[in-house]
Design goal:
Number of helices: 4
Strand content: 25-35%
Number of domains: 1
Strand order of the largest sheet: 1-2-3-4-5-7-6
CATH architecture: 3-Layer(aba) Sandwich
CATH superfamily: Gcn5-related N-acetyltransferase (GNAT)
CATH topology: Aminopeptidase
Shape: globular
Distance between the termini: 32 Å
Number of strands: 7
Structural class: alpha+beta
Radius of gyration: 15 Å
Order of helices and strands: HEHEEEHEHEE
């Protein structure tokens, strides 16, 4: 299967917390735990009380959750809109899935929260990746659960 064919078969959903089904919630929490806690060895409070105020981006392939992120309105994490908990299943990372996930996030924000800046907390080794979406580093590198991070900001996005 070609990369384009694979990417075209991913089913994307973006839902407010109130519309997330129990199985979807379980699957996203499991993926977040598998990657951030088990794979990356981070001991942190994933359940931070922000999921209820967020929009949730689900990427499924053949019924399995393989990509996830949450979109946070301005004022929840930062004064700006934010994208967080960006995660892809380990088995699919070489298929440009992170790029497809971020494209979904950016397109949704442009349509639903236009003309707004976006701030993220990025793992430092992904600085170049997030730069491709217009994010620029702000401030110094800092430790977050044992992994170097850096704040990044994308100026206001105009709806097209």
């Amino acid at each position: 299967m070609t990369l384009q064919n694979f990417l075209s078969r991913i089913h994307w959903q973006i839902l407010p917390y109130q519309s997330v089904e129990k199985e979807q919630l379980y699957n996203c929490l499991r993926l977040r735990s598998d990657v951030f806690v088990v794979e990356q060895g981070c001991m942190y409070a994933d359940l931070d009380g922000k999921d209820q105020d967020s929009w949730h981006v689900f990427g499924t392939y053949e019924g399995a959750l393989i990509a996830y992120a949450r979109l946070l309105p301005a004022g929840v994490s930062y004064t700006e809109v934010s994208i967080g908990r960006v995660v892809t299943h380990a088995s699919y990372r070489k298929h440009r899935l992170g790029t497809a996930l971020m494209q979904q996030c950016m397109e949704w924000i442009i349509l639903n929260w236009p003309n707004t800046a976006i701030k993220i907390s990025a793992q430092h080794h992904l600085l170049a990746f997030y730069s491709t979406f217009g994010f620029e580093p702000v401030g110094e590198v800092y430790d977050d659960a044992g992994i170097p991070h850096i704040a990044m900001l994308r100026p206001s996005i105009k709806a097209e």
